[in-house]
């Protein structure tokens, strides 16, 4: 029970007013009273009450007017209506207009305590949710997407323009570039920020389960469907659904998604009733959808429905000027999280970070900074603290034919092992650590990939 909550009692019958005040004060609440609607409305306007307990029939301003004022101007203050038996219908109507509950006269003390306690618990939960949403908005605001380079600045400008619209957004970029962070920034800076953000990783859910996950199912729709299940689209109503790895969606589901984008309606599996939803759709992929369309693997009409506002997120190698900002940000963040002394990067370390091509993009840099906070000794991170692939004089960017042997040359065995490790990690990052898909990217058998992971001591993050 919430103690020391402030309650305003508005009741024109003095005996009733005194009785209500006595019961509530005995429970530990701070109680103020008003003998009529005009006085009660004035006090409600002037002071921040947690709860207003008002009679419906009052001289002057009645309880319904007080309720309307609270709903419009003090939405965090809950209202309970007290009414005589003859006006129970009116109190039910008042609940439809925003009252938390109603109590019939004569008020039963035990019922009063119970209803007030429930109302204040409900208010506490609402306040907690409000604060959490504010924290989420702050956490996923534009200021938390780090960078000042021209490529990322263009992305910021585009996000600001589209955030407070309902336009469908398609986020394009390599794995690890921060596509989900951008989706969250769009949602939490839109008029839907008070609604849910429901993320769905289309690659992480088996194809045979994804349809039920997205659209839900009716009881008895298939074996083991023992109850009706609400899908992600219904859960996202009033907010945003984020469809990550959209290219992995099967042709059958692409058809159903196309209908949702067209008229915001669908049927649950096994159902016949059309369900309307109020959602914004944000999709993301690390694949070339135009190429998939030309290959017949992705519907052209769906592609253009999704590509209302395309946002391309540049890979980290295209924004090297942001590497110092990101590295220092992650160092500071992980030092606080791990309760470790603050560290700084030596100039030659920063140069090595700038030379590296970052196949895992920002996520790879973030993981490296976490590792350095935990393992590096001393206040300054040196080249010796870096993994072999990042040390100066041993660039592994074979694709660009840029190989610097340095003064002492390269240990071929170690370099080949490290390059193999890079390729495996890049494939795992791109496939969201789905080993079968990573093996396909590397043109290996799944068992061969697993053996190589064991040999290289590669474990999921």
Automatic annotation (TrEMBL):
Q: Which InterPro entries does the UniProt record give? A: AAA+_ATPase, AAA_lid_NorR, CheY-like_superfamily, Homeodomain-like_sf, HTH_Fis, P-loop_NTPase, Sig_transdc_resp-reg_receiver, Sigma_54_int
Q: Which residues carry this modification: 4-aspartylphosphate?
A: 55
What would you give as a GO molecular function for this chain, any one? Answer: ATP binding
Q: Where the protein is mainly located, per its record?
A: cytoplasm
One annotated Gene Ontology cellular component of this protein: cytoplasm
| TM regions (residue ranges) | none
Q: Give the superkingdom in one word.
A: Bacteria
> Which part of the chain is the Sigma-54 factor interaction domain?
145-374
Keywords for this protein: Activator, ATP-binding, Cytoplasm, DNA-binding, Nucleotide-binding, Phosphoprotein, Transcription, Transcription regulation, Two-component regulatory system
Biological process (GO) annotations held by this record are: phosphorelay signal transduction system; regulation of DNA-templated transcription
Q: In which compartments does the protein localize?
A: Cytoplasm
Q: What is this protein called?
A: Sigma-54-dependent Fis family transcriptional regulator
Organism of provenance:
Desulfobacca acetoxidans
* Residue ranges constituting the Response regulatory domain according to the UniProt record: 6-120
Pfam families named among the record's database cross-references: AAA_lid_14, HTH_8, Response_reg, Sigma54_activat
